[in-house]
Amino acid sequence: MSGECGNLNTPIMLRRLSLLLTFVWFVPMSARAADPDKRISQYAHAAWRTQEGLFKGSPTTIVQTQDGYLWLGTTTELVRFDGVRFVPFSPEHGERLPDVSIGYLLAARDGTLWIATAGGLSHWKNHTLTNYPAGLNPIIGPILEDRQGTIWFSRGPRPEAGALCQVVGSSTRCLGLADGVPPFIVQSLIEDTQGNIWIGGSRTLLRWTRTSQSEYRPRGLKTNSANGVIGLASMSDGTVWVGINRRGPGLGLERIVNGRWTPFKTPELDGSTLLVTSLYVDREEALWIATADHGIYRVHHDAVDHFDRTNGLSGDYVTAFYEDREGNLWVVTSQGVDRFSETAVVSFSDAERLCSPEVDSVLAARDGSLWIGSDGALSHLQNGKVSCLRTGKGLPGVQTTSLLEDQAGRLWVGLDDTLWVYAHSTFRRIVKPDGSQIGFVTGIAEDAAHNVWIAARQGPGGLSRSLMRIEGLTVREEVRDAQMPRRVAADPAGGIWLGLASGGTLAHYQDGKLATYRFPHAETALLHQLLPSADGSILAATSKGLLGWHQGDLLTLNATNGLPCDGLNAMVFDDVGNLWLFMSCALGKLTPSELQKWRSHPDVKVSLQTFDGLDGVSTGLASFVGAARSTDGRLWFAAFDRLQMLDPARVRRNAVPPPVHIEQVIADRTTYPSTGSLRLPPLTRDLEIDYVALSFVAPQKVRFRYRLEGRDDTWQEPGTRRQAFYSDLRPATYRFRVIASNNDGLWNEEGATLDIVVAPAWYQTRAFLVLSVVTGVMAAWGLYRLRMRQLASTLNARFDERLAERTRVARDIHDTLLQTVQGTKMVADVALDRPDDAPGMRRALEQVSNWLGQASKEGRETVTALRGSTTEQSDLAEAFRRAIEDCGRQGSIQASLSITGDARKPLHPVVRDEIYRIGYEAIRNACMHSRGSRLDVAVSYARDLTVRIVDDGVGIEPAIADGGKDGHFGLQGMRERAARIGAKLTVVSSPGSGTDIVVVVPGRAIFRRQTTTLFDRLRAQFTN
Fold first, then answer.
1. Is the pLDDT of residue 774 over 90?
2. Taking CA 39 as the corner, what is the angle to CA 33 and CA 43, rounded to the nearest 5 degrees?
3. Residue 29 has pLDDT above 50, yes or no
4. β-pair partners for 443
5. Which tens digit of pLDDT belongs to each residue from 879-908?
6. What is the dihedral sign for C-alpha 407, 410, 415, 420?
7. Which residues pair with 304 in a beta bridge?
8. DSSP 654-701
9. Are 554 and 540 within 8 A, CB to CB?
10. What are residue 225's phi and psi, to 5 degrees?
11. What is the homologous superfamily of the domain 660-762 according to CATH?
């Protein structure tokens, strides 16, 4: 069958179209329900109102999907709620809903969110939005998932083509008359426990299966009525509740029991007077009723409770209910969304029909009832019902002070400045023997001997205090003292304990003897309650913490060693020995082991389980004894403006670990989705990760832990903060993990994870790193090789220099000294061969003597040449002058020296020495070998340094001048020295024309500057 339904254009259908966009119904989910024994006002209540600007439009429906999110539909948008923020629905890929007006929502078991709009049906799953063809009937009514998982829905405004439709794959199929479904607009849709589908419409109610159909027409509903069955709810016993949006006989709220219409009417509520908009049955089989004008009602075992705008509901026009997986009940009104949650601590006030808005004292009676003292009334709470004794109406006074039930079951009541005993519905006054009044009673106790002890104030301003013992309704003893007790308590071991007016002092009174115990650090404390134990110890609740006396030790427990605050208003033991402390900031439980630990080590820090305002605690100070334990084990605390109750045996722990989700990542002000693996661009600096934990009981108490694996070594503890921040993450792959605990400290250890890859910049890549390492190694190797070459060059230069010197010395020795010595040896050998030739021997010896003299002279000249360095001098002219003088002493050659230009000092010492040695070699050669008569030496200082040595001797053969003579190294050494210092050496000579030797040294090499030159570095290397 086609997905399109028929066409019926009537005024009735148009009116129903308007209602479809206004009213809402949803299918309940399995979850823990709120305790039906509590009144609605006793639940924790929170409201989010449209005027707060949290969402747009008027709310219509709310559901929770499998991932834990709540989805709220309004007349203008679909929003997602995490307990803290309402986030408008915005598909990631740009899809759009057929219409912004949301009428119904369904959270299917497979995690799909089905969305009924005024423009068609859609569903959202796995971050994908799918829209179904609308056809001629675009308006979608209620949606239902049956036990087989089939999705059913209704279309409008043309129901004649089929009022009930189902989703078949990617299309839809509508049922008509042939399927047993008449053409009417569907306004409610449920499945009962037997698998029947109930269809409520504008004209009738239909129970439908594929094989059978039954029609239940509401009595009094006209066929052409614009209203009809707007709400349906099924009970486990088969009862079907029917809500009709029209007042009148047979309308409003009714039920079908065993196939018959049955009206609902109790002394508290007449169902026919209700204008019902929606119905819901929770897990505890309590029926919740939404109305169009009076808020909500709850019916449980015919007990009716009501809650509306005057009680704090966001609006009186209610459209839907929903119960989430933690047991919170959500109420959708036209003005907002309300949440009702069960709390560990329950409050009773005048809203729960206590007799007075003030609670000053509380007493648990042995019959299980409770007496509550207040101003102007005495309340009696028994079996959930309150009876009142009011001033002038059975109560002989105004201000109820202290209360006591004695061993005979009589109630002792302090009223104003009198004391009364209440028994058999009659009050009897207790007076002193002189007929005067007891006074303002601040404490009452009965000891082990059944004496009743009274702490009272008398006189103007109540400054006079007294302690009285009453036996048999007669005052037998009275002790007057300004420091007499403010509170009294019976010691099970005998006597009584007293809390004196000075709050830091406890006392024990027995047989006329008074023993006092003073707490110096608590002198200004205000004592509120005494709590004795069977072992003879005593505890005192004061404004300075918990004081105690135990086996002779004075003990103090306050904020310094475990309490959340110092102010302690009241206390009581439960049935298993836990000590409950009603403090000015919280309610705490001290276990027996922790209590014993404190008694043994008073300075130890104890551990308490605490309950605060989010658990229902409303702290307040009662004027008198403010704690009691009833016979059923429940604990009661007077909080001045209300009475609070906690049942230790029924404290419900939230056993649902909160689903954890990473919602988005913001890196350098750019938002990224948190699905899959996230890759961030290079050089990402500021990173923010937003996460949530979906616990709705008390979102303020949700705690988080997170860890960025690859960065954090341990779990980070942000408390309730829902963001993690990082800066300057290095390029790497990280895994972000976040876990959370609910309001009762139950952790979801699995949490949520997100892989984050911070991409490297080009210079942070592995390839660049490898290239950098290789380049660095190669550069280091190259520098090493260069250094080795420099060292080798330096060593070679030193070696060459030394070799040159040795070569020159060898030349000098060879050319002079060795030749002379060799000739001398030859003469001596000849003479020795002729020993008989005396004259020849003499001539030989003379010759040897001359030659030895010559050898000595040549040796001195060689040494002079080696030692005649100008290293310590800068005057080349002076050095050359000495060389010329030595030359003149060796022969008849005439030598002269000329200087041209201004002598420039200092000269580079290395270059200067080389020039000197070149010049000395040339002068010496001229003196010894030229056989000339004149020698001219000229030194010219200009841009460059020029040295010229000219003789008029026999000259040098061209071949020798160019290549040198075999076995002689003079010219070769001169050329080597010139080349080493970058000088130019010119030798011009020919046989018979003398020799002209010119050396030109560049000025940049010889003339020293203030800056370091190449030769400075060379010299430093040579020196090293």
1. yes
2. 60
3. no
4. 455
5. 888 878 777 665 678 888 899 888 777 788
6. negative
7. 299
8. ---PPPEEEEEEEETTEEEE-SS-EEEPTT--EEEEEEEE---S-GGG
9. no
10. -65, 140
11. Immunoglobulins (2.60.40.10)
- Do the strands 164-168 and 151-156 form a parallel or antiparallel pair, or are they unpaired? antiparallel
Tens digit of pLDDT for each residue in 111-121?
Answer: 999 999 999 99
Closest CA to 529 of 419, 403, 663: 403
Q: What is the pLDDT of residue 483?
A: 73
pLDDT above 80 for 21: no
The answer, yes or no, to whether residue 769 has pLDDT greater than 90, is no
Angle, helices 819-833/838-867, rounded to nearest 10 degrees? 170
CATH fit for domain 350-650, picks 2.130.10.10, 1.10.760.10, 3.40.50.720, 3.50.50.60: 2.130.10.10
Can you tell me whether residue 217 is helix, strand or coil?
coil
pLDDT tens, 811-856?
556 555 665 676 677 778 777 888 888 887 887 788 778 778 767 7
Cα four-point dihedral sign 305, 311, 312, 318: positive
Given a contact cutoff of 8 angstroms between Cβ atoms, the answer to whether 714 and 707 are in contact is yes
| Alpha-carbon gap, residue 12 to 577, rounded angstroms | 68
- CATH class of the region 871-1024: alpha beta
Residue 29 CA to chain centroid, in angstroms? 33
469 vs 476: CA distance, rounded Å:
6
Q: Exposed e or buried b for every residue in 698-733, given b needs 16+ CB within 10 A?
A: bbebbbbbbbbeeeeeeeeebeeebebebeebebee
The mean pLDDT value of the chain amounts to 86
Question: Is the model's pLDDT at 485 over the cut of 70?
Answer: yes
Q: What CA–CA distance (Å, rounded) separates 725 from 710?
A: 15
Comparing CA positions, the residue from 656, 26, 43 lying closest to residue 322 is 26
Neighbours of 105 (CB within 10 A): 25
- Measure the CA angle with vertex 550, ends 544 and 556; round to 5°: 20
Q: Residue 47: pLDDT above 80?
A: yes
Check pLDDT > 90 for residue 565.
yes
Per-residue CA distances from 758 to 679, 714, 734, 763 (Å): 6, 21, 8, 14
Report the distance separating Cα 635 and Cα 627, nearest Å.
7
- Which strands make up the sheet holding 102-107, listed edge to edge? 102-107, 113-117, 120-125, 128-131
Confidence of residue 247 (pLDDT cuts 50, 70, 90): low
Distance set, CA 224 to CA 203, 227, 714 (Å): 7, 9, 70
Q: Write the class of the CATH domain 11-340.
A: mainly beta
Instruction: Name residues whose C-beta falls within 8 Å of residue 288's C-beta, 6 or more positions apart in sequence.
Output: 279, 280, 281, 282, 296, 297, 298, 321, 329
Task: Tell me if 614 sits within 8 A of 44, measured CB to CB.
Answer: yes
Ranked by mean pLDDT, the top range of 479-493, 602-616, 846-860 is: 602-616
| CA–CA dist 440, 459 (Å, integer) | 10
Whether 572 contacts 627, CB under 8 Å = yes
- Edge-first strand order for the sheet with 643-646 is 345-348, 643-646, 635-638, 627-629
Q: Read off the pLDDT of residues 417-430 as tens digits, 9 standing for 90 and up.
A: 999 999 999 999 99
Phi (first) and psi of residue 149, to 5 degrees = 90, 5
Question: In terms of Cα–Cα distance, which of 402, 442, 436 is closest to 421?
Answer: 402
Residue 30's pLDDT band, with cuts at 50, 70 and 90, is: very low
In angstroms, the Cα distances linking 729 to 14, 675, 679, 735, 759 are: 61, 20, 13, 13, 10
The answer to whether residues 820 and 854 touch, using CB atoms and an 8 Å cutoff, is yes
Nearest alpha-carbon partner for 719 in 736, 737, 738: 738
Chain centroid to Cα 569, Å, comes to 37
> What pLDDT is attached to residue 808?
58
Collapse the DSSP code of 114 into the 3-class scheme (helix H, G, I; strand E, B; otherwise coil) and give the result: strand
Which whole-number Å values give the CA distances from 90 to 77, 80, 136, 546, 754, in the listed order? Answer: 10, 10, 27, 55, 21
